[in-house]
UniProtKB/TrEMBL annotation:
It is an enzyme of class 1 (oxidoreductase). One of its GO terms (cellular component) is mitochondrion. The keyword Oxidoreductase applies. This is 3-hydroxyacyl-CoA dehydrogenase type-2. Pfam families: adh_short. It comes from Trichoplusia ni (Cabbage looper). GO terms for biological process: androgen metabolic process; estrogen metabolic process; fatty acid metabolic process. Gene3D superfamilies: NAD(P)-binding Rossmann-like Domain (3.40.50.720). Its EC number is 1.1.1.53, 1.1.1.62. CDD domains: HSD10-like_SDR_c. Belongs to the short-chain dehydrogenases/reductases (SDR) family. PANTHER family: 17-BETA-HYDROXYSTEROID DEHYDROGENASE 14-RELATED, SHORT-CHAIN DEHYDROGENASE/REDUCTASE.
Amino acid sequence: MFKGLVGLVTGGASGLGRATVEQLLKQGGRVVICDLPSSPGQETAKQLKENVAFVPIDVTSEKDVKNALQTTVDKFGRLDVVVNCAGVATATRVYNFKKEQPFDLKSFQRTIEVNLIGTFNVIRLAAGLIGKNAPDADGQRGVIINTASVAAFDGQIGQAAYSASKAGVVGMTLPIARDLAKQGIRVVTIAPGLFRTPMMEMLPEPAIKSLEATVPFPPRLGHPSEFALLVQSIIQNPMLNGETIRLDGSLRMQP
Ligand SMILES: CC(=O)CC(=O)SCCNC(=O)CCNC(=O)[C@H](O)C(C)(C)COP(=O)(O)OP(=O)(O)OC[C@H]1O[C@@H](n2cnc3c(N)ncnc32)[C@H](O)[C@@H]1OP(=O)(O)O
Ligand SMILES: NC(=O)C1=CN([C@@H]2O[C@H](COP(=O)(O)OP(=O)(O)OC[C@H]3O[C@@H](n4cnc5c(N)ncnc54)[C@H](O)[C@@H]3O)[C@@H](O)[C@H]2O)C=CC1
């Protein structure tokens, strides 16, 4: 289905990103996995064998992202789809009254830097490369897919930094789609609910169970493959643009 398509997936060594890499490969695409040098990206690429490459990057670095785009061109000759999955989660109250300690500003800044600025960094640099593609019959040159979170809308206690970073991703989706419309590049954001990934598994199991119990239907954590399925649908459907799609079993998180 995606024969010849070239994708670049940040955070592609784990969780939702990895499932996306697998789905794109299954559909005949070629994929560059971008993730931290400390991630299992190299092993992941080895396991998946063909049509896949790993480039170690930090999404906040201009040099790293430019290097990943150059590798994409050198290896596969073009770039059609970017899926931004790289992200970090933090959980701290804005002020801890027991310890008389305010939220650590560096931690707030780093969350914004990775989740929001890192996503923007990849978009701004990748857009130039996607824009070099010849347009298809519909005038389309490529697609950029971002990952926000339902926490952008209903962040819980302790999620000020994380929610702010993800709300930023939601907020920039429409203006960037408008910026890139003339070049025929679509921009769509997915706001996942609760998916079983290493990030989610950092929460204690009782916390996971209690969150899971709040999902109306299906009353369970999502499978990463279900996120990847939405990525595939977004790529396939040319009318989807400038929108954030919740993928959450109708979950609205409680405080
Ligand atoms: C990854 C995604 O993108 C998807 C998601 O967002 S998944 C949701 C992730 N959610 C989180 O990570 C929650 C982050 N928050 C926390 O871990 C903790 O609230 C915290 C560590 C920040 C604070 O913990 P704390 O100061 O020890 O507070 P604690 O004493 O446990 O709780 C105080 C009150 O808040 C409530 N509370 C705390 N965390 C809660 C939670 N996650 N959900 C609901 N209520 C919560 C407690 O029930 C308690 O209520 P009462 O005062 O009525 O008894
Ligand atoms: N798992 C869930 O329930 C949800 C996840 N999300 C979001 O989905 C995205 C993927 O999350 P998961 O797969 O669950 O987490 P994960 O922790 O399994 O994967 C995230 C990947 O991002 C990489 N990464 C982190 N910082 C990076 C950086 N600076 N540069 C490059 N790569 C970096 C990590 O190394 C990791 O491989 C994240 O943006 C997360 O916030 C949103 C809502 C729910």
